[in-house]
Amino acid sequence: MDIPISKVAERLNLEEDVLKNAIERRVITLCKYRDKRYLVFKKKVRHVERGTVLFLNERMDVVMGYPKIRRALVLDPTVKKYFIDQVVVEEKLNGYNVRVVNIDNEILGITRGGRICPFTTKKVLKLLNTDILKDHPKITLCGEMIGLNNPYVPHYYPEVDREIYRDESTVIRENLGLYIFDIREGDRSLPVEERNKLLEEYNVPYVKPLGVFNKEEIEEIKSTVVKLDRENREGIVMKDPSMLVDPIKYTTHYTHCQDLAVAFRYTFDLGIHFMFSRLIREGFQSYEFNEGEKEMERRALSIGKSIIYPMVESIKEVARGELITEDFELYFDSEEDVEEFLRYLKEVHISYVVKEREVLKNRIFRVIIGKVYPSTRDKIKSYLGGSLW
Amino acid sequence: MDIPISKVAERLNLEEDVLKNAIERRVITLCKYRDKRYLVFKKKVRHVERGTVLFLNERMDVVMGYPKIRRALVLDPTVKKYFIDQVVVEEKLNGYNVRVVNIDNEILGITRGGRICPFTTKKVLKLLNTDILKDHPKITLCGEMIGLNNPYVPHYYPEVDREIYRDESTVIRENLGLYIFDIREGDRSLPVEERNKLLEEYNVPYVKPLGVFNKEEIEEIKSTVVKLDRENREGIVMKDPSMLVDPIKYTTHYTHCQDLAVAFRYTFDLGIHFMFSRLIREGFQSYEFNEGEKEMERRALSIGKSIIYPMVESIKEVARGELITEDFELYFDSEEDVEEFLRYLKEVHISYVVKEREVLKNRIFRVIIGKVYPSTRDKIKSYLGGSLW
User: Fold this and answer.
1) What is the distance in angstroms between the Cα of A253 and the nearest Cα belonging to chain B?
2) Do A77 and B386 count as a contact with CB atoms less than 8 A apart?
3) Where's the RNA ligase Pab1020 C-terminal domain (chains A, B) (predicted)?
4) CB–CB of A388 and B248 under 8 A?
5) What superfamily in CATH does domain B69-243 come from?
6) What's the pLDDT tens digit per position in B189-244?
7) What's the CA dihedral at A207, A210, A214, A217 to 10 degrees?
8) Model ipTM value
């Protein structure tokens, strides 16, 4: 169906000129997923968040972009100042943000950037009881897709290890899970308890609540962070129980170092702002945790290792003539699903190589995709070849 | 005297429009030092380097900007590829770049940025035999001003410790020296031996030559770097003996870590590109020096410490309500000299506080100036106060 631009402008409460201009600058792009055509906001346009999707269907369904969660660099006094009274502390999972919606009776998985990802969409159907979206078609389930076997943020979580096939001789496991952390309707979030009640009703997995604290109980919140750090987990998101203020986040030393390691493995591809911000977080954390000489030295060593080891590893790989790739091991149900996903990667301009591809028993397709980081390889190669800085 | 813009354009071989435009954009500014008026190029304009100075005197004397020295990230194969045959290795000193010139029979010290610095100018007269510039008024002596007691890059060098006053009860030492590393005439450098001969004739101190190598002798060059690193020194500059190709530089682990420490002490003032580049250098150096587990771990620890210790120190200082300053202890010969220099700092938009000021015996004026880093303090203060990132 063809929808005039004036209708779209009206639906989003944007002026037609602003909309047209954004389309011309390719800030808004037209995408397609099977028979669905939709507009994606690649950047914020006026009040419309980055990642917002508008479906070109009869109702012109809009899925709002998921708002950025801001960060406390120190828990004290930030938490005391920011919250009203109580603070719900939930675990922040290290995966990728997914919005699950029901559009014209079809369940779709939308990435942070606003694309309907075929991999995600298919996995959602297996990981969630989607009846919740049939009964409540207007809500958006916002969650984190985690585990080793996803194509964006591969990070092992023991709790999402699932057997997807077994016979006498083989067990195939997929490490993948989806935990809902927010239910939104328009730009409003359900209060935490209401959210939990609804999700429990449908037996939908949601993020681990770590406790509800009075906003003055900073030491208790700090303890949960220390515990998560020891367990190699990412951090916390703190919420007002009624969701009257936006959530804020705080992350662990472990995750800062993990991020640094990724940043320095792909030295010239990941932005330097990415690494700078992690180092700043470490500085404030070391200060707030009131570290002595020994603890600081331990922190310094792990920061230094996270920087130098992966960088030297990448230089060595390039010196050996290898590609610099980040590898993702993925499981698909059919050859067509594999192909559809590879087409999708091209569409979103991710360069990749297929490193392994095999059909397992029970017609499960196992693929290892290597995401290529071209600048890192080219620059390292050039410097190793004698180029001057 | 008033010089028409067309004359200036002609003198520099620039089109009048280009010159006018650069003046309007304040890329070229008019400055004054006592009775001398001069134009400074704050950025490169066409072929005219940043830091170039044009005096508005009769001859319209031009002092070309000192060109950026490019860097090898690995010595092998860069040195082999870059040089013609022989390589003169000189020590790279960690101070600030000074061009010393004779303009209308006055000796002036010009900074990298192209300003006549009153502190530098006066010290030059004490540290150099300026007869060389009287006999050869067209040359530019390019050197590094080093030592603890300078207002830009305070770094202790034992060899420039000088007694500037002594009586029965007191010894006052100034740690300051100037080493010439290049003699230029227009945009041409004297060949290394000619340079040394001329400087020796006038007994002018010049940078330590560390050896002359065949360009294939990379291991020997590496050894000099290792030795300098152990002595906590900055690095090397490699030159073609005839100066037919531009010099290139290579620096030590020690200096990378020192730089990181400075960058993270003034976290939000020094650019993130500054720190990123130091980390990259460390990666390539660790790779080229073929480090084993132990050496890499040692490197990692010192990198981590250089990042986290000074950052936490700054956070603590801000938490205590202190200013974040970099302190310079300077010696002057008169009250007027102090005042002139403080006026100069204001002119070049350096914010500072005078922390100590005393008249020593023999009318030597000792001043401690604290250069203020405003963003670091403001941002840290704001985050400590609960602002979100």
Assistant:
1) 12
2) yes
3) 262-387
4) yes
5) DNA ligase/mRNA capping enzyme (3.30.470.30)
6) 999 999 999 999 999 999 988 999 999 999 999 999 999 999 999 999 999 999 99
7) -140
8) 0.90
